[in-house]
């Protein structure tokens, strides 16, 4: 059954999460949790192996030796193009990152447009996994969905699950191109159903590629979380969530964590989703701002940009 989303109510509900007061004693724990959920990302045409290696070092040691940041957790993953997976895998293995929970994630399936033949997109996935990717972030065919060809979208997601093999799959909806919140809910339900039917282990739905505006927004993330919640209530199975693009500040990240806690609160008080296993942020600048906020909590002053190494 298709769900109709009340746009005004979704926007009001999403805005309410930004007004919650978080005590200073809980803020550091929230910041460290957010840091551990980040997929530290570089997806630029000018990416090089050295840039990726530098990003990997930042992923393992976000504080980069800065006094007051020595105990910060590593991030969840480093997310790169398929051609950079090998460099990321080698550098993370050099640091023993598997033991610290840092995965290699790769965008694939003709990211960001998805406008390639399915055979090419699936080969993109296989090559990324063979190179060492633990996770694959695929893009759906938004044009096919908007044209009403949901069967084709389902088949493409199912084929990608198979091509992933051992790797976990995140399904990017590119919500900025879906036009309405009703469409966001419908394609969220569709992706979740396919992940269920294919028994994809640790499947995720993800807002955006970060290449389209708007990228992640709180109303869109709320609608997707509600789809995950309803599915979990009906089946007892979990699906992960990843907002990506446009989340640049620690304050924003804390707002998202409040939303997860309160939206999923009917299931285990929402705590089951407050873990990198089931919730991620796709971001590049967020790590540095989280570090700055942690320094402020410990020292009572903001650091300069140069006090924390750029990702």
Compact description:
With 311 residues, the chain is an alpha/beta fold. The protein has helices at 7-16, 24-36, 49-60, 85-94, 118-131, 142-146, 150-164, 181-197, 218-235, 250-263, 286-299; strands at residues 38-41, 77-80, 103-107, 135-139, 168-172, 204-206, 240-242, 281-283.
Can you describe this structure?
The protein is built from 11 helices and 8 strands. It has a single domain (7-307), classed as Aldolase class I (TIM Barrel), CATH 3.20.20. Helix 9 packs parallel to helix 10 (250-263). By secondary structure, it is an alpha/beta fold. Strand 2, helix 4 (85-94) and strand 3 (103-107) form a beta-alpha-beta unit. 46% of the residues lie in helices and 10% in strands. The mean pLDDT is 93. It has helices at 7-16, 24-36, 49-60, 85-94, 118-131, 142-146, 150-164, 181-197, 218-235, 250-263, 286-299; strands at residues 38-41, 77-80, 103-107, 135-139, 168-172, 204-206, 240-242, 281-283. An 8-stranded parallel beta sheet has the order 7-6-5-4-3-2-1-8.
Largest sheet: 8 strands, parallel
How does the helix and strand content classify structurally? alpha/beta
The first-to-last residue Cα distance is: 44 Å
- The amount of beta strand, in percent, is 5-15%
């Amino acid at each position: 059954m298709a769900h109709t989303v009340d746009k005004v109510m979704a926007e009001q509900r999403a805005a309410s999460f930004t007004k919650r007061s978080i005590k200073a004693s809980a803020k550091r724990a929230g910041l460290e949790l957010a840091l551990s959920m980040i997929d530290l990302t570089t997806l630029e045409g000018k990416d090089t192996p050295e840039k990726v290696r530098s990003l990997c070092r930042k992923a393992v040691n976000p504080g980069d030796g800065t006094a007051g940041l020595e105990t910060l957790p590593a991030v969840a993953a480093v997310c790169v193009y398929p051609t950079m997976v090998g460099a990321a895998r080698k550098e993370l293995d050099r640091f023993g990152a598997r033991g610290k929970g840092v995965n290699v994630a790769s965008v694939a399936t003709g990211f960001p447009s998805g406008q390639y033949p399915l055979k090419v997109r699936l080969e993109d996935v296989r090559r990324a996994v063979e190179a060492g990717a633990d996770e694959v972030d695929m893009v759906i065919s938004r044009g096919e969905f908007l044209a009403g060809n949901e069967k084709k979208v389902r088949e493409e997601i199912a084929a990608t699950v198979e091509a992933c093999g051992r790797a976990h799959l995140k399904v990017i909806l590119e919500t900025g191109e879906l036009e309405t919140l009703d469409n966001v809910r419908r394609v969220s339900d569709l992706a979740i159903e396919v992940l269920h039917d294919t028994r994809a282990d640790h499947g995720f739905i993800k807002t955006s590629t970060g290449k389209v505006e708007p990228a992640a927004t709180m109303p869109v993330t709320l609608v997707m979380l509600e789809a995950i919640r309803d599915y979990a209530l009906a089946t007892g199975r979990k699906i992960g969530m990843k907002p990506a693009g446009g989340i640049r500040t620690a304050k924003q990240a804390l707002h998202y964590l409040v939303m997860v806690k309160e939206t999923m609160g009917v299931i285990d008080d929402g705590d089951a989703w407050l873990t990198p296993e089931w919730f991620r942020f796709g971001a590049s600048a967020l790590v540095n701002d989280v570090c700055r906020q942690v320094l402020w909590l410990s020292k009572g002053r903001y650091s300069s940009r140069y006090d924390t190494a750029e990702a």
